[in-house]
Amino acid sequence: SSSRAPPPPSVRAHPRTRKHLQPVAMTCSLLPGLFGIFVQGLLFAVSVGVLLCKKKREERLLRLEARNWPTFLLDSSKQLFGAAWVHVVNMVLASMLGDQFEGDGCDWYWLNIMVDTTVGVGIEYVLLWLLTEALESATMHQGVFSTGEYKDDAGRILLSRYFAQLGVWLLCVTFMKVAVVILFLAFHAEFQAFAHGFLAMFPTDAQTQLVLVMLITPCCMNAFQFWLTDNFLKHSNGKLHDHSLFEEVPELQQ
């Protein structure tokens, strides 16, 4: 989930292909650099921009019932901390998978983004519901772990509630990545073939691959992911199951 992406790959010609007359094959390597920093900054800006647009839309539609800025910032910061953690995990994961299995950095970079922002969001939703219900039951439903609820009866924000919920969210994100790794290990050939087949539909020159894999896919998919995730991280009558996963997604509203 990018904010949830591994360091961007650079695209170069594979040395073993240079002696052939056929078109040069492209492979990716996960190399840091100024362009990589720029891409990560752009993805962060897109993610924050999406959340701000969602806040403004919420104010226009819900008016007085919209979240105030302190609550919105607490909700959003949980996503950003989770994204930073997944960024670290994905950095290691993309490199390991590229070394262990067929495919290069571009294939696994693209797969991590696509799975995290689709299947991963669904896994996180289920995990958050399960953990919240279990912890709330264990603590006699005091509301400490009720997602998006940070205030006491007097209306004061309790940071202890925020950090408790942040811890739960980081657990959800971690377990999601474990599940994704298991999927990759079990079906690595199928995943790699899918990614390679999809990327092969586009021109294989370095510039096109860089734009598609490093800019277009992460920006679009992370925007979608952040919008969806905010729907179930915010408070809704103290019950996670009251949330609709696709609540307030303009394209999916009836």
TrEMBL record:
Cross-referenced Pfam families, in alphabetical order? STIMATE
Q: List GO terms (cellular component aspect).
A: membrane
Which keywords describe this protein according to UniProt?
Membrane, Transmembrane, Transmembrane helix
Q: Which domain of life is it from?
A: Eukaryota
Q: Where are the transmembrane segments?
A: 30-53, 80-97, 109-131, 166-189, 209-229
What's the protein name? Answer: Transmembrane protein 110
Source organism of the structure: Strombidinopsis acuminata
